[in-house]
Write a structure and sequence with these properties.
Layout: H1 5-14, H2 20-33, H3 49-61, E1 67-71, H4 79-94, E2 98-102, H5 106-112, E3 116-120, E4 123-128, E5 143-147
Length: 171
């Protein structure tokens, strides 16, 4: 809570040894991607919940990961801000990052019409290419816990951040 938006995102690069010049070049581009241009000097308490979530996403993507795990990213947001985050995750996916989204929000799952993997007690209960949130199974039915949109095309490199090693990951 004592870092500005810029400093929060820059921190993810500083801890891996990226130089100041590259940070100064990269962070503004990432903030533009997440629609936070002009908020660089704001402190977290000056931001809405949706804006704080976008700062967290910017910090997560600044090193251009191949996979982004978004665990209930809309859980504490109102519907308007929830859909802003979902649209941002779709945008990141279109750049080529696979997004694994875990949610209990039936509306989001149903409107995305993406791959849905349903977990039941930690085991895969179903895996559907274009699934929906199944409420017909009653209270004990397994609930969708993850949607995994697959990358549509290679990610253009809009920022000059170091690549992340993805040993052992599948495309």
């Amino acid at each position: 809570p004592n870092k500005t938006v810029f400093e929060n995102v820059a921190f993810a690069l500083e801890i891996v040894g990226v130089g100041k010049k590259e940070i100064q070049h990269t962070v503004p581009k990432v903030l533009d991607i997440v629609n936070l241009k002009g908020k660089e000097n704001n402190m977290p308490m000056q931001l809405s919940g949706g804006e704080r979530q976008r700062v967290a996403i910017a910090r997560a993507i600044v090193r251009q990961p191949r996979i982004l795990i978004a665990d209930e990213p809309t859980g504490n947001l109102d519907p308007k801000h929830s859909w802003e985050i979902i649209r941002l995750l779709e945008k990141i996916n279109k750049y080529g990052t696979t997004v694994l989204l875990t949610t209990h929000n039936a509306e989001i799952v149903n409107k995305l019409k993406r791959r849905v993997i349903t977990l039941d007690h930690g085991k895969v209960a179903s895996d559907k290419a274009s699934g929906t949130y199944d409420l017909d199974g009653g209270a004990n039915a397994p609930q969708p816990a993850a949607t995994a949109p697959k990358a549509a095309r290679p990610m253009p490199r809009p920022v000059a951040a170091p690549k992340v090693s993805a040993k052992g990951t599948k495309k």
